[in-house]
Amino acid sequence: MLLAVNDAISSAVLAGRSGNAEVFGVIDLTNRIEVRIGATSLGMAIQFVANASVLGYDVRGAMVFYGEPGTPSLRARECERLWAQFGGVLLQR
After folding, report:
1. Residue 79: what are its φ and ψ, rounded to 5°?
2. Which of 15, 38, 42, 55 is most buried by its number of CB atoms within 10 A?
3. Which of 9, 57, 19 is nearest to 37 (CA)?
């Protein structure tokens, strides 16, 4: 069952990787404030969240919203998995 859910998420993300996304819940550890991430592509949002901890951000509460209203958001762990699995393909248009 979990594999089917992951496959569905992966398929949706790959299909919509160049679509618009918004990232919320990213904390700048230096200033201890939530960072405003402007609208970006889904692939770029996933890349940012997957790598943000190295850049000094706390993404434990991060959510990536994309697609049609009602589409489940992506959490940091999903972004890390998707980036590890697909990498640069997510950035292609």
Report:
1. -65, -40
2. 42
3. 57
Write down the H helix ranges in 16-75: 42-51
Q: Which of 60, 57, 1 is nearest to 29 (CA)?
A: 57
pLDDT in tens, 6-56: 677 888 888 888 899 999 999 999 999 999 888 999 999 999 999 999 999
Contact (Cβ atoms closer than 8 angstroms) between residue 82 and residue 43: no
Q: What is the per-residue pLDDT across 68-77, written as a single tens digit (0 to 9) for each?
A: 888 889 999 9
Q: pTM for the full model?
A: 0.87
Cβ partners under 8 Å of residue 88, min gap 6: none
**Direct distance between the N- and C-terminal alpha carbons of the chain, in angstroms, rounded to an integer:** 30
